[in-house]
Amino acid sequence: MKLELVHTAIIRPTAPYNFDYSVHNPSHYPIPLNYWERGKLWFSFRFKDKLLGIKFTNQGTVSKPKIKAEFYYKSKPDKEYINILLKELDYRFQFSKDYSGFYTKFEKDRLVGKVLQKFKGMHGFCIEGLYEYLMIAILLQNATIKRTVQMTNIMLEKHGDLIEFNGIKLYSIWKPDRILKASESELRGLKVGYRAKTFIRATEDYLKLDEFTMRKLDNTELRKELLKIYGVGPASVDYIMCGVFHRSILTTIPPWEAKIYSRLLGLKTKDPKKIMAFLDKRYSKYRAAVIGHLFMDISWKHKREDVEWMEKLLPYA
DNA sequence: CATCAGGGCCCTG
DNA sequence: CAGGGCCCTGAT
């Protein structure tokens, strides 16, 4: 479906704001829901039953941030819709979040000071809403990157919605009712295995929730609610809380991440529990933010110049 | 060719 | 709370 330019807005994030570090995460697996190049981001965005294409263009600097946002749709949406849409984008991209306390606290830290300098102005972001991210979490479970990519693509081709705007074609994750209309056996035919059932059950559970109300819950309550969703366990719940709900938490470190952090932090141990204890002692409530920055750093490096040991540690096989 | 583990999670005992 | 089963794929 081709979409037309229907509205343009200027967004002024809270400084410091580094555009590229705040709209693109090179460690995420390639998925045709968005497209990034330096200073620009195109993405599909389903919100309140409308599927739009959105393009961001960086027109500012880290200290004087400014983004041009262009909205593509079938017809001109009303003012009210644009207003709540901008509010939602503010939440998803954390434009108004103030990270200054974090930066001043650790800017001289021996291990992460330099990285914090480099990434100053990186805001946590998650383009996807709860439903989309939930589906992605299921696609990630118990699979290598390659398999996840393959399952994602077939699911998007069969059930996703394709849009075209500003010369770019992107998918959007299907609407929940689309998956409920599909049968489990039909989904199994797409070689997603036991996830066929998980997609359906998780969608049913999702429809009982209200993600906007959930944003007001504290971490403990939120975790409890999310764990009620079929197919969401300790690993996925952490990804969802950090991503969709922007909670700065680090409760479990999966073994593959432990290997990476061990190296980044210059530790001898690769034991997730010991690494956690170290982080907790040194960075306490900022431990997730610290790890987030270190991981971003190595991911960008890896994207640019192929870090050899990362290639070995990441299960790209 | 067979077997097995993998960036989990559910269910059963 | 421990451990088996689940889908597929690629490594051995």
Query: CATH top level of the largest domain?
Result: Mainly Alpha
SS-based class: alpha+beta
Given the C-alpha coordinates, what overall shape results?
globular
Q: Which residue ranges are poorly predicted, with pLDDT under 50 across at least 5 consecutive positions?
A: none
Give an overview of the whole structure:
This protein has 317 residues and is an alpha+beta fold. The chain has 3 domains: 6-96, TATA-Binding Protein, CATH 3.30.310; 130-243, Hypothetical protein, domain 2 (Endonuclease III, domain 1, Orthogonal Bundle); 255-313, no CATH class. Helix content is 48%, strand content 15%. It contains 16 helices and 7 strands. It has helices at 19-23, 79-93, 100-106, 113-118, 130-140, 145-159, 176-181, 184-188, 195-206, 211-214, 219-227, 234-243, 255-264, 272-283, 287-305, 308-313, and strands spanning 4-11, 34-37, 40-47, 50-58, 67-73, 161-165, 168-172. Strands 1-5-4-3-2 form a 5-stranded antiparallel β-sheet. Strand 6 (161-165) and strand 7 form a beta hairpin. It is globular, with a radius of gyration of 20 Å. The structure holds a DNA duplex (13 and 12 nucleotides).
